[in-house]
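Trying the structure run again after the queue cleared.
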Amino acid sequence: MSLAQVETVAPEETGGGLGRDAWRRLRRNPVAIVGAILVIMFVALALLAPWLAPYPPDKPVGQVTPTSIPGPSAEHWFGLDDLGRDEFSRVLWGARWSLVIGVVSLLLGLVGGMVLGLLAGAFGGWVDGVVMRLVDIMLSVPGLLFAIGIAAMLGSGLDAVMIAIAVVNVPIFARLLRGQMLAQRQSDYVLAAKAVGVRRRRIVLGHVLPNSLTPVIVQGTLTLAVAIVDAAGLAFLGLSSNDPSIPEWGRMLADTQRYLSSAPLLAVFPGLAIIIAALGFTLLGESLREALDPKYRR
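Done. Tokens:
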């Protein structure tokens, strides 16, 4: 078998057949459609917040007292918060901050996890053992508790939150990619490439790694939902930015605890925003998993 023939032995997962089949399944899946609509709405509102928000998110636009906080009205759809700022505008801008924190932490965790997974899956042996023991140690600590510890150690701030969430996600991507690469290493096309003398680096980077990325991409969609919830949780605990003008959903929930009896809607709106955003990415990610992974197909 020649080298050119080996190049064509790669599994069908890299071809257009599986992609077309997955797209057909997604279009017929109502769960995927609902998830996609929620995700598109969330991303659109986050990107268009500067133009959709009727008021600045950090400036008071009305008079309030601790015992009298105006609720929803024609002028202020979600009412005012405890400092007289428009709640609807702050929820819109909160989507923007949640998207930035979620995407940045996801990318950092994905890169770190892929580096460790690539090392473990490509070299095996003692390298695999060292990397997986490190991954096991990181996974032995509950994710949110691990993130709280890292954020507290780094100090309050958005950077600390993004790094903390990214570190928590590193072992998840590392273990997933390593498992996929180990399975691909026993495939016929890899054995054939080794038999004709193809270099290991070319096999790993040219075939094994690309054919192992599909589950990692699906996991990234699911992880983005968790990242949004974790970011809100860390902000609720006071581990995010100390700047009160930044409209983070978790920080908004924390600030409204004193006014739950007089203005409960101040907690309802950011809470619903967190649920809807996380639900959209979760539904879309689960649908992608069912469409792309043969084990989950019905």
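Confidence is low (pLDDT under 50) at residues 3-9. Worth checking whether this holds up in the mutant runs.
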